[in-house]
Amino acid sequence: MKPVITLLRSLLRQTVRNRQGLFWTLFFPVVLMVVFSLLGNTKSQVSLAVVTSRSTSAGVVRIMEKSPLFHVRTMGRRAALAAVRSGRMDAALLVPAAPRARTTTLALRYNPANSLSAQQAVGAVQALVAQADLMLSGRPPLFRVRATPLVHARASTYLDFLLPGVLALMTMQNSLFGIGSGLTRWKEKGILRRFRVTPLQPLQFLGAAIMNYLLVGLASSAIIIGFATGLLHASVDIPLGPVTLVLLLGMGCFLAFGFIVAGVSRSQEATIPIINLISFPMMFLSGVFFPISSLPKILTHIVDYFPLTYVSGALRGLMSGQLTWHDAAFRGDLLGMAVWLVLGGAVAARVWRWE
Amino acid sequence: MSGKALRLEGLTKRYGAVTAVDQLNLNIPPGIIFGLLGPNGAGKTTTLEMTEGLRRPDEGRVWLGEVDLIRHPAEAKRRFGVQLQTSAFFELLTVKETLELFQSLYSHPLRVGDLVGRMDLEEKRNARVDGLSGGQRQRLALAVALVNDPEVVFLDEPSAGLDPQARRNLWEVIVGLKAEGRTVVLTTHYMDEAEMLADRLAIMDHGRVLDEGAPRELIERHLPAAVIEVDRSTGIGTDTNLPALVRIEEREEVMALVTQHLEDTLTGLVAWASQHGRQLTGLKTRSATLEDVFLELTGRSLRE
Ligand SMILES: Nc1ncnc2c1ncn2[C@@H]1O[C@H](COP(=O)(O)OP(=O)(O)OP(=O)(O)O)[C@@H](O)[C@H]1O
Ligand SMILES: [Mg+2]
Fold first, then answer.
1. Does residue B219 lie within any of the structural domains?
2. Which among B119, B125, B133, B132 is positioned nearest to B97, based on CA atoms?
């Protein structure tokens, strides 16, 4: 045990002394979050273009205008549709002239390209119209919903959405590049080889190296969370146990991939393109910057099984308060990561070389 | 120190078509300095690294006393101190931290102060490895090799890259290791070093030992007499016939006349010069050195 601890200490020491490495570990996530929190991240209202004709009953429109859910603008039909198409408005509500039949059809046009706000818009309008219907008809409602939030209510911002994604991205990048730049270089220079003429066991070395990466990963995640919540006022839940578990499992998967890459490539230069090949698709598809639901359906069937998808999905669920220990979805994410870890670890053990 | 002999038996290592080490046998008595001498690619490093347990031989055995080290590699790791031909250490650690790291791997390590003192690294104790000069790194590598108070120390070209003063200091350290009862096995490209340090020498090429013995012994066996050197401008050719001559070699600046009987050849040479009207510029006589033996055995210069 003593060699492992001494080795771990000296690896950690080196991480702290590697100023440049530390800078790049934290720089990218910080910049990302600052930029997105500056770019208006208080979008919680649905912007709704309302198209009326002269004889429209003003009741519906007034109810819409009073609702805090909507930002209502009355526009002409053509302007409204153009605004939805271009994404300036989330949806257009076409209110017909004075009702002829018993049921008036309100046409809602939305742009499915932006699925998050489209879903939000359709749902909100349907709910509100149902409510308006009751109020305008003057009948007492048969049912009434009193909504009590389970988690404390908050207006969710893009930063809140982004933070778990950034943490997921960091577990991937730090693990892959940590091995790619550290372990591969040590291997290439013959530093690891020197330990083979000492009584140090290979597993002791690997244990210390893995613990080093895990500790550094947890510490940098803590710094990023502290930065996002303290300085940028992100409002997220941090259930410590589950979040730590997800981070550790996620890092475990990507460390295994890192060991595989380091095992198969001869030089440090050769690892970088391989690492990019692995990390780029996941960085953009696995729900780091935008939800997976906005991808084409066929693609999601594949992306759903990416390791980073499990990490970002689990972290986002935990941090938005939608997932807990007990949810099947959360357990599914954990299982997904565990499978990747076992597979990756098995392959890594086969291909890893000391020199 | 225990005083166990190190024995290599039929060690063989092949890399594809190249046989790097070919059925090599060596018997290294305890407590001596043993030198391996050979041109680039002779198989010195491969031999050492198979003995240390770093490379698996295709054939052969390594014994330390009665212990089969190929079967019991842990014994080798415990008792051997190793300086690799190209050794590198974590760049962001200091000298002291590096030594402490290696100390933690052994049960009875030597003290850092002792190691640093021996290797003249006191000033650099708290300097980072990435700030050390080539020679200082070399000395750190030797200090690390001594961390476990080893019975046998392997030094693969320990003086490569050292300035003359540092080489001289290194020689003292190596002689000191022997005085403490350790066995030292080293490779070198420097003849003077081999002649100075080694109690026994093996000259190898193409993975085989060409001859083995004490330096003086080797010289006497192969070149009983002496060497006459004259400048090339003398115009003497390699095919010139002189009494008692073994052969004539072209060296960098001079022609070297290897002889079995100095007086006879010298008389002949003087007669040849006056007959052909030549000046014997740069005429010098000396006894044969290891370098002459080396050329005789391998047919090539040590530093090509
Ligand atoms: N890992 C390897 N793969 C392929 N060939 C190798 C390998 N290691 C050594 N060789 C070959 O084996 C031969 C002996 O190499 P070795 O390094 O033992 O020589 P050496 O005597 O130490 O030379 P030098 O004086 O240059 O250090 C060389 O021809 C070398 O090319
Ligand atoms: Mg060598």
1. no
2. B125
